[in-house]
Model the fold of this input.
Amino acid sequence: MVWGSLNLILNPNKKIIVFSLIIILIVFSILNSVASMTMEKNNSRSLNLDTDNLKIEDISGGMGISFFIKNDGDLDILDITVDIEVSKGFIKLQSPNQINISELSAGHSVKVHIKVFGLEFGEPFGYNRITIKISAPNIKTIQRIIVVNVVGPFVGINAVFSNDEGAYEGYTLFSPEYSQYTYLINNSGEIVHSWKSNYLQGLGLHLLKNGNLIRTCLSKINPEFVGGGVTGCIEMYDWNGTLIWKYELTNNLQCLHHDIRPLPNGDILMTAWEYKTAAEAISAGRNPLTLLAGKLWPCFILEVEPTFPEGGNIVWEWHVWDHLIQDFNPLKQNYGVVADHPELIDINFEGSIIGVVDYNHINSIDYNEEFDQILLSSYTQNEIWIIDHSTTTEEASGHIGGNSGKGGDLLYRWGNPQAYRAGNASDQKFFSQHNARWVKPGLPGEGNILVFNNGFLRPGPGLGYSSVDEIIPPVDENGNYSLEPGSAYGPKDLVWSYTAENPTDFYAYYLSSAERLPNGNTFICDGDHGVFFQVTPDKEIVWRYVNLFPDLINIDVFKTQFYPLDYPGLGDFNQKTVNKDIKNRDFLTSKFLNNIIQMFR
Done:
């Protein structure tokens, strides 16, 4: 009877195609499950997340989905409800959609098994999820969103997202490094809007208040500047994905890289490299023995006023090269005692191996409107710097002028006092850090500085471990920073820091970002592994997303930007790019799937 009904649906040729497809899908599902397990081993938090005393542990695929619900507290938990929902498509839930657990004793756990049947791909190839929501009186609600591949009764798990009570609701903007797309997702991990560029290398990005997207990209290969974070181009798209502006700076003398920051007046701050020959570097006091590549790429900052539809006016600049000191060659003008000049940058200090060419590798830029100051992250020096933006370009090239009266000299630096001879290795705090940001006005910790401290070669277990560190800079109401002569800039201690319970479980040796949310949570992007999560002030993970785009291997993300639900730049959502309507997948029919299910009953 079953096969008879199948014959009504499929002719012999179609049968061969369909069942060949099923075999391919089975093989793919197995391989994908192996890749998924490898990904999850790289981040042990993925399948063991908890809220208060109720935990979900050991989510696994196979013949359906299995997991444990554990009471990790000292009191029994009563009236636990487990709600199960399957996304629309060719997946059928063969277990009850609600399971009730009358009592779970303290310290005990219960295993739950869910049976499904179907034929579906999960992200990044399709859009198929199984959502588990667990609730009980006086217990925070737990939600797990499981991205699955389903072939018959077999389930392969691509990723597990979490969206628990206590997460701050909003939208996350990100662009995978090796993708042409920029995505906007909601707290359920659903892509609600996307933009497509012709180019990869979307690193710095922002959604403007008018709904326009700006992003960096690599529009062409520059043979003179081949380094991590190279871009060379900035693009602006309207909400509907139309390219409305483009700015390129990539030649044999200068090249954009890494990050951008829009200003309130519509201008855009950009980070860039400039080329210096060995002769120029030696003339500036560089030790010739350290010029292994015969050149240097010091960084500079430029402010561009866009001219639509292409190009712009450079209205302000700041160059590291104008603020150097050295104690190597007494015949040069910038010779001096490095320890006496913390406002200057030692041309011979190399805190990282890449400093032999990429002298600063500034990988982030932020702006403080109250003080009209700029915050930079200098990877090579393992420091953050603050400079005055109120100067003219001429003043920024010197040592006087601006609100600070110090021209373009450093107003503040922190993270590695070795860089200005005010400490030793034990005083170093930052290790290959990224994404220094001020906490925005009105948010918990406003005015503090958050930094993603990657921790590469940080003393401790393994090759290092990552942390998100928050400091209170020693600044007064006028934007002046205090420093005791002969000492390092404060503070001595962090005001808050997040690390994993087992430190090496959270380790992103490159990329990554962090920002403070309105409810006090901190949003963290582990860019190395493409994992985003929210932690509470008490360091509890309450939301988690795993990027699966553009494929299961190239999931790196330079940084994320989070926007609350009421952000004015949010327009009408468009899910057509990724979350394709299931009904358009006409290679199978629901009737066919129902007949297959009957065969296995």
